[in-house]
Amino acid sequence: MIKAKKSLGQNFLIDKNILEKIVNISNIENKIVLEIGPGTGNLTSCILKKNPKKLIVIEKDDELATKLEKKFNNQITIINDDVLKADETNLFDDKIIVFGNLPYNVSTEILSKWIINLKNNFWFECLILMFQKEVADRIIAKFNTSKYGRLSIICNWKLNIKKICDIKPGAFFPKPKIDSSLLVFYPKKNFIKIKDPNNLEKITRIFFNQRRKMLKKPFNQLFNGDHRILDKLKIDLTMRPQNLDLDTYYKLTCEYENLRS
Ligand code: SAM
Q1: What is the pLDDT of residues 104-133, one digit of tens each?
Q2: Would residue 78 count as lying in a domain?
Q3: Are 140 and 163 in contact (CB under 8 A)?
Q4: Which of 162, 187, 212 is the last residue of a domain?
Q5: pLDDT in tens, 163-187
Q6: Which atom from ligand 1 is nearest to the alpha carbon of 103?
Q7: How many Å lie between the centroid of ligand 1 and the Cα of residue 256?
């Protein structure tokens, strides 16, 4: 019997209907699949039944990695490591499908790392990921709403995001205290070209540092009060950070890069 480790965000998905729903989101037959944090292997078993070409899993917990080795033998490739240290971009030749019932304590860190590190070629066909509902709500939030912020702006830059469903605590063991949501991320064909995604990270950090305050201070800090940019992007400095839509943040980042080139 496995004792779930809170420090590794271990809440294992046990609801068969939800497991089935997750593996049916995309056709994975004959595709390369990566699963992050397979845990006790419940989702892993469902993925294998769909006959992927290859299934690679990344699990940080040594004890679980050993158990998975015994359970699945040579049906899967196990990487017993921290996903935050792995370089997924170099693991595969084909585009892959990624599943993850992510450990909630590092879910946004994992996603931000993938997005910030994305080169021009996407290494995945889609990401099928579970988050705590509160985080998923922030990822898909629209501008002019209270949940809109850095996470929404960074996640929506190169990806189209679809919410599949919310999932109640009873679907997991042990039961988490919060609801979860399942999201799917697809690469966008067209997106605003930013030279260095770390600049998007910086701009959103500075703008949302004081989300209730007017835009004047962060704008002046970054752009030295350049009124041409305000006119071009139709920004009024009495607005608040949540009033600027996604594209305005991407364009602002391009302007910031132009000023420095
Ligand atoms: N996928 C399984 C399921 O649905 O039943 C388990 C999900 S559980 C929420 C998160 C899993 O991620 C755990 O197995 C945990 O050990 C693993 N994990 C936590 N942090 C990790 C990290 N940084 N890298 C890789 N795996 C991690």
Answers
A1: 889 999 998 888 888 767 899 999 999 999
A2: yes
A3: yes
A4: 187
A5: 999 999 999 999 999 999 999 999 9
A6: 10
A7: 38
**Domain total of the chain:** 2
Number of residues in the chain? 261
Ligand 1 environment, Cβ below 6 A: 8-13, 36-40, 42-43, 58-61, 64, 82-84, 101, 103, 106
Task: Give the CATH number for residue 152.
Answer: 3.40.50.150
| Structural domain contains residue 136 | yes
Alpha-carbon distance 36 to 44, whole Å? 10
**Quick one: which atom of ligand 1 is closest to the CA of 110?**
23
pLDDT at residue number 1: 66
Alpha helix positions (H), 54-186: 62-72, 107-116, 133-139, 150-158
Q: Say if residue 175 is in the same domain as residue 206.
A: no
Residues 172 and 242 in one domain: no
Q: Which residue has the tokens 């991407």?
A: 250
Q: Which domain holds residue 229?
A: 197-259
117-148 exposure pattern, b = at least 16 Cβ within 10 A, e = fewer: ebeeebbbbbbbbbbbbebbbbbbbebeeebb
CATH number for the domain harbouring residue 234: 1.10.8.100
Ligand 1 centroid from CA 197, angstroms? 27
Residues 183 and 201 in one domain: no
Task: State whether residue 48 is helix, strand or coil.
Answer: helix
Instruction: Of 99, 98, 59, give the one whose Cα is nearest residue 78.
Output: 59
Q: In ligand 1, which atom is closest to the CA atom of 14?
A: 5
- Considering the domain architecture, whether residues 229 and 170 belong to the same structural domain is answered as no
